[in-house]
Amino acid sequence: MTGIHTREYAPPDLASQWAECLIDDYGNNADITAMLDHTEIHLVLQANPDGRQVAETNPNSPGPTPSCTDSTGLFNVDRFDLGEKDCDWLAINLGRFSHLCSFLVVVSSCPLTCDRCELFTFE
After folding, report:
1. Residue 75 pairs with which residues in a beta bridge?
2. What does pTM read for this prediction?
3. Within a domain: residue 73?
């Protein structure tokens, strides 16, 4: 799965090129042929097409609302000894680590990922 976040332009393009390589080399490359004969592959090339369209149309757009954006900084919750992590890591691992969103240091860095924008919207 690629293109989860709005401005992740390269991963969907790389995944598309990889898929083309698999198709083109099937039957010509023994490793690729064996892999495809014995492996089921599912590709989600662009998980957030609407967000990408907004970002490409307006590159200065901060996200859904100007007062609620995930930062590019790192957070660290010493209690769990995970080391420094960012919002992309949290988004990918949210199913396993959703409890981190109960910590203010995480919510303040990743309000979109934690679905806590209401805490930061002052309209």
Report:
1. 85
2. 0.44
3. no
